[in-house]
Amino acid sequence: MHPTVAPPVRPSAWWYAATIGIGFVGLLVAVGLLVNGFRGLQRTGREVTTVALGSSGPVTFEEPDSFTLYYAGPIVVRSGADMRAMEAELDATLRPEGGGPAVPMRPFEGTSGIFNDAQNGSQAVALRTFTIRRAGTYTLTVGTVAGVSGDRGNVIVGKSVYAPLARGALWAAGVAAVAGVLALVATIALAVTRGRAKRQRRPPWPGGPPPWPGAPPPWPGPPPPGAWPPAVAGTGPAPGWPVPPPPPGYGPAEDLRR
Hints:
By secondary structure, the chain is α+β, with helices and mostly antiparallel strands. The protein has a domain at 48-160: Sandwich (Jelly Rolls). It has helices spanning 15-46, 80-90, 162-200; strands at 48-52, 56-61, 65-74, 93-96, 105-107, 114-117, 122-132, 136-141, 154-159.
């Protein structure tokens, strides 16, 4: 007799590699988005317009977006109070080239906008942020900074250096989270399906069932009359004990010693 081989459990355990692959692919995509955010930051650093201190100059915006106004020059800003003082001193205004109201600007909050280059003794400081609603050319007018000549300091207008990095980080986090949830759900579903298949599978019986050792013994038949129930030593009246008479209505007393 051939041994019984249990069928394999379906789906295969190799599918766990697919669930891990979902998370791995999501991680790769998230890293790619983060790298793209860093590249966008580098492009933003190159796409700027510079106006010398104490002068005016044209600034062209190709599309509506959010922008930041920076001071670039010798290190003179070291705190948030210094940022507010320089902002008031520059008193920058931005107007459409054809005339019109000035573009509203908001102070840049926090000292995270201070970027120092100690080796060269220079810095860039984010002072204001603003939003361009309509593309076109605008005129930027800025004042002077005490102790900084016009040939050593400038005002720079460009997109926020944090915006591309922030977008890349948000997209990366979202993709990583979705991939992680999908991988977890797929892993749980696979584990439940395989567990159900294992419970439904009959265990194999190596070599088949063992043979019967022989024919069962023949039935001896019912016991002969008087042999059941068998006498048990120590029960019944002792030898020589008088047998009490039967109650009224019964036949002769039976010998309980039999």
